[in-house]
Design brief:
Elements lengths: L1 E12 L2 E13 L4 E5 L6 H8 L7 E6 L2 E2 L5 H11 E5 L10 H11 L4 H14 L15 H13 L5 E5 L7 H16 L3 E5 L3 H4 L4 E6 L2 E7 L11
Amino acid sequence: MIDISDLHKSYKMGQNSLHVLKGIDFKADEGEMVAIMGSSGSGKSTLLNILGMLDEADAGTYILDGKEIKDLDETKAAIYRNKFLGFVFQSFNLIAYKTALENVMLPLYYQKVSRKERQTRAQKFLEQVGLGPWATHRPNELSGGQKQRVAIARALVSKPKVLLADEPTGALDSKTSYELMDVLQTINNQGITLLIVTHEEDIANMCKRIVHLRDGIIVSDKKVTQVKASQYVE
């Protein structure tokens, strides 16, 4: 599903250059649930941005579902993103004046799906994350956990093969975090590949594999016995 080889990324900092990723080799098979960990500045968000085609590597290869991702113009990158990838961010990134349903419908609008089909699919995914009754609520009427569930439903509505989550529980308390991880584990059990950037050990242990980055290289990559989030959810 994902195959990265000898990936490098640097950023210009005035006269200097900051080498953020220093030859990353990484693979993720279909249906994996991988936590990416590392201290601030280790390169984990940069790696996720490259995986999500929000940024480009300077060197190395990135193969997604058998296709090499390189030299894509914004139109082609958008097509691949819509086809393969869903995104969840710490800050939710919901549109304040739109209802939960309208927020979830948005990716389908850009895919030119009919309005009726958009509504039907968006409602289905809101129900999947336990928010069916909140469809007409705007973000300011929702809790942090509910906002993140709307964001997950929006990420899923395009039926991506890979879900990329950058600190999805970072703005949530422990109880809400575990409820959210229960949702993400359920999604993963349906066959969607999940890559989750987190700095929280308990969240990482709810994945099936933990990758540690330090100073732009992978220093450990191990499969773990997954802790089921449902045991912490009432």
